[in-house]
Amino acid sequence: MAKFEPVLLARIGKPDSALLETYQRDGGYSALKKALGMAPEEIINTVKDSGLRGRGGAGFPTGLKWTFLPKGHPGPIYLAINADESEPGTFNNRILMEEDPHQIIEGIIISCFAIKSNKSFLYLRYEYGKSYRALENAVNECYAAGILGDNVMGSGFKCDIVLHRGAAAYICGEETGLIESLEGKRAWPRIKPPFPAIEGAFRKPTIVNNIETMACVVHIVNKGVEWFKSMGVPADPNNPRDAGSYGPKLYCLSGHVNKPGCYEVPLGITARQLIDEYGGGVPNGRGIKAVVPGGISMGFLSASELDTPLDFNGPGKVGCLGLGTAAVVVIDDQTSMVDVLYNCCRFFSHESCGQCTPCREGTAWMTKIMHRIRSGQGEMRDLDLLAEVAGSIGIIPGTTICGLSDGAAWPVKNAIKKFRPEFEEYIQSKRSTIKPAELLAVH
Ligand SMILES: Cc1cc2nc3c(=O)[nH]c(=O)nc-3n(C[C@H](O)[C@H](O)[C@H](O)COP(=O)(O)O)c2cc1C
Ligand code: SF4
């Protein structure tokens, strides 16, 4: 493979990188010009052939999702862009939006043209004020330059982008929660089917895609399918269900590393390579106890699993839920997994929207049990109880509407299985690591 050249982050850190003038000077909007000369179906096929899988967490093939739209629909068809980015440790969307908003806008217009949509809603979390301002300015620049509006680059294609600031909740990132919130309602995920491609925002066919997915579309159109497929991990020819893991990926590295940051590398780098070669290892010469492979909802890799490739299949092979958002959080050997797991449980319990009893009650009970353990009053049987609750909530056992509860269950399942001796030692010691102020925070 040729030497890897970052494309998604290529402009980050350059002076005035968020402005139209510099974006165009760097070749920006040439992919859009090219796309406008193609047939929409040709663009969909190009994205399909590239093997691009959504970067928002689920890894669903992007081109395939686009083909689920009803054929010959009179419209409107909507493209909803998911910039809720609430998975702990994830910040790649923010960097793209703040530093290179035109890259995103170019991807959105190309995608709208491909799916025959004239309107995109870009839904971003409320806390992202700087992203919002950068996008707002970039969108205004595009309208003034005729890149957005009734006649995109003189092609006759109409495209509008509406920026929508969310109300700041993790569940607003779930695609149907996002759509409900966009419609001005509480972000309660919808029962599927119908999937958004059939009935989405304002009951119209809607494609939901992530910010990084949009950035990838630009480079696929510009550089072609072969270029995209030259990176990553090819599909297993013996597994017809494997869609492969192609292209560059933004990995967010945080926690106990010397050089935390957002790194662009081909899909499939191992956790160890990422931590050592990009993150500069763990501070103070400490060892690694655990690594979150892609946001806490994916669970944990143990120290013996660090050579796991971080592609769409790798983490699943060692018992994690998947690659998720590729937010890699390093936990050193001085950190208590009891504390880590308690924090995970508390987060999901707080963020559960409450519609489904197994999720609402399960996440709350897991938090209470973890609090009991941390306060020195845990019993050995609590570990089996935690595993039982975690095994009973989520889409995978088929008890809930959305995947938040799977995300809540996985860190519990992984921690109890992979770090059980540490939990047992903690329970036997009857010690408490709860600080007085924390008592107020327990539900
Ligand atoms: C609880 C929950 C939270 C989610 N949060 C996000 C998010 O913040 N951003 C995102 O792009 N996808 C998020 N997703 C995944 C979306 O539902 C959806 O799959 C994604 O936006 C599709 O875009 P993609 O195909 O480009 O990846 C979340 C899913 C769940 C279950
Ligand atoms: S699984 Fe949890 S977050 Fe998702 S809809 Fe049900 S209660 Fe809400």
Notes on the protein architecture:
- The chain is of the alpha/beta class and 443 residues long.
- It has 3 domains: 20-230, Rossmann fold (3-Layer(aba) Sandwich), CATH 3.40.50.11540; 248-332, Ubiquitin-like (UB roll) (Roll); 337-439, Up-down Bundle (de novo design (two linked rop proteins)).
- It is built from 18 helices and 11 strands.
- The chain has helices at 20-25, 30-36, 40-50, 62-67, 92-99, 101-115, 129-144, 175-182, 211-223, 225-229, 271-278, 314-317, 337-351, 357-374, 381-392, 404-418, 420-429, 436-439; strands at residues 78-83, 119-124, 160-165, 206-210, 232-233, 245-246, 248-255, 261-266, 288-292, 301-302, 327-332.
- The longest helix is centred in the last third of the chain and has 18 residues, at 357-374.
- Bound molecules: flavin mononucleotide (FMN) and iron/sulfur cluster.
- Flavin mononucleotide binds at residues 54-58, 60, 62, 82, 84-87, 170-171, 173-175, 208-210, 213, 402-404.
Q: Can you give keywords for this protein?
A:
443 residues, alpha/beta, Rossmann fold, Ubiquitin-like (UB roll), de novo design (two linked rop proteins), four-stranded parallel sheet, 41% helix, 12% strand, globular, binds flavin mononucleotide, binds iron/sulfur cluster
